[in-house]
């Protein structure tokens, strides 16, 4: 691993820790504790899978592409994912929290990235995990990090969409019909 990789991994990881610490939600009027343990589950899966993928990348010969190009592509994808995540958080503004919560005066965001995707922040995060898998340049490591993380994010999206449907009813189900979850016009 080169120093650029180390810096980007560190910035990515620290940005997620800061988001978790700063954007938890906490207004007394918020409806809390709706995430059904999904946030803790996501963190456990992420930490386990990243560590296993890093070991697998070092110990196995399943190279995606020889040379440094795949590492650079992967690092670029991590940065692109971070950018998508930060832009989506900024667009959602005070309604964004890392826990599944209905904020006071909550409404459904339907413009910007949220006019296309219901979960652009998750899409950005998943893009970064895909980038990590690519950056270690190993097919098996890519699968080990991306598939379980995608699975726990899908679980999280199910929890969140169920809560939002319960809160907003037909308005949210109509919104779901006109947007994709994380991949524009596909999923």
Automatic annotation (TrEMBL):
Pfam families: PEMT (PF04191). The chain crosses the membrane at residues 6-23, 39-58, 78-100, 112-132, 138-155. It is a multi-pass membrane protein. Its main location: membrane. It comes from the Bacteria. Keywords: Membrane, Transmembrane, Transmembrane helix. It is found in: Endomembrane system. The keyword Hydrolase does not apply. Gene3D superfamilies: 1.20.120.1630. This is Isoprenylcysteine carboxylmethyltransferase family protein.
């Amino acid at each position: 691993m080169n120093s650029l990789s180390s810096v980007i991994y560190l910035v990515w990881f620290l940005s997620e820790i800061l988001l978790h610490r700063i954007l938890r939600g906490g207004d007394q009027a918020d409806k809390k504790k709706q995430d059904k343990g999904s946030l803790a589950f996501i963190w456990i899966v992420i930490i386990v899978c990243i560590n296993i993928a890093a070991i697998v990348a070092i110990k196995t010969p399943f190279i995606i592409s020889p040379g440094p190009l795949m590492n650079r592509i992967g690092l670029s994808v991590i940065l692109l994912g971070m950018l998508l995540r930060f832009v989506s958080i900024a667009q959602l503004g005070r309604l964004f929290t890392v826990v599944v919560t209905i904020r006071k005066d909550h409404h459904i965001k339907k413009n910007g990235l949220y006019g296309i995707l219901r979960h652009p922040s998750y899409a950005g995060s998943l893009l970064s995990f895909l980038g990590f898998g690519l950056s270690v340049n190993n097919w098996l490591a890519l699968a080990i990090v991306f598939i379980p993380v995608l699975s726990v994010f899908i679980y999280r999206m199910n929890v969140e969409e169920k809560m939002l449907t319960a809160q907003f009813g037909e308005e949210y189900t109509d919104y779901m019909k006109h947007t994709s979850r994380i991949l524009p016009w596909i999923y």
